């Protein structure tokens, strides 16, 4: 297929309720959408999942816009590629910037699946249509508010509860949650807020039967995590540290984790996510899909990725209405009362794009086309 042009948009999408982590509080998402066109008029959509500031990663909305507009999109437009998997290699001259690359990479996978008239999840090699869903709950203003949110999500059927933790909002909070909900599948996400000096704390957390502790130490570390994993029973899950299949293999070989979170943006899109999934599956390390407060487009891509065989744990792919009063896809993503999502059978990402909604949210737009 020949990539004729790439349209970039930034939309502003307000959250129903703020989402707080150890990095800070988010009330509105600034999201870049990539719309890729081929010479036959077909199109595919991707989403850049970078945050509004360089806190989760060194990419953020404004840096991604410049990188996409000035470098990545011009590298791809006008190119004749045999398949979507080749697109990531076209962008290889740019080091890093994986969230920016993922927006284009994923859009090309959506485009190719539509050209083939197959659902994206099948095109990726998904092995099951129904995927398990969990939720991520941010830091709340009071423990009582957290308990109420957890109760609401359990009643909605979600199969796993993840709560954000940080120093001062950790041991006593998890103790209260476990006392209230002794049998739920519970995990804590630290977003790199701790150091090896906190080993005594993590040993105490061993008493609460957590599924995992996600990224407790530095965002770019696999060595200290290996030391920590030897000291505690609770499985460590790596998130920010894993940007490629090679990172995953090194972490597994060092014993840095027993679980890995795969985020499409963090690894650079479907092309690399498939490689990460293969490495982890061959080494019997379970993976799950992490979330980045995506709109429906990013959420649809996450659903497709979650159908791959290695994704054996409930991910962060939850219903649209948990975050947005109105999403930018139709129908919105819904979760069944048994805590699952059914991957759609329509070609590509499987959802219709609400262009009028996107237009109303758009604050800037650029078209990069071949000369």
Give the helix/strand layout.
Blueprint: E1 3-21, E2 24-38, E3 43-48, H1 61-76, H2 87-90, H3 98-115, H4 120-124, E4 130-132, E5 135-137, H5 143-155, E6 161-164, H6 171-180, E7 186-189, H7 199-205, E8 213-214, H8 223-231, E9 236-238, H9 245-254, E10 259-262, H10 264-267, H11 270-282, E11 287-289, H12 296-306, E12 329-330, E13 340-342, E14 352-353, H13 355-361, E15 362-369
Parallel strand pairs: 5-6, 6-7, 7-8, 8-9, 9-10, 10-11
Antiparallel strand pairs: 1-2, 1-15, 2-3, 4-13, 12-14
Could you explain the architecture of this structure?
There is one protein chain. The protein is built from 13 helices and 15 strands. It is 34% helix and 22% strand. Helix 1 (61-76) packs across helix 3 and helix 9 (245-254) packs parallel to helix 11 (270-282). Strand 6, helix 6 (171-180) and strand 7 form a beta-alpha-beta unit. The strands form 4 sheets. A 7-stranded parallel sheet has the order 5-6-7-8-9-10-11. It is of the alpha/beta class and 371 residues long.
CATH class of the largest domain: Alpha Beta
Largest beta-sheet characterization: 7 strands, parallel
Indicate the overall shape.
globular
Gyration radius (Cα, Å) is: 20 Å
Count of the separate structural domains = 2
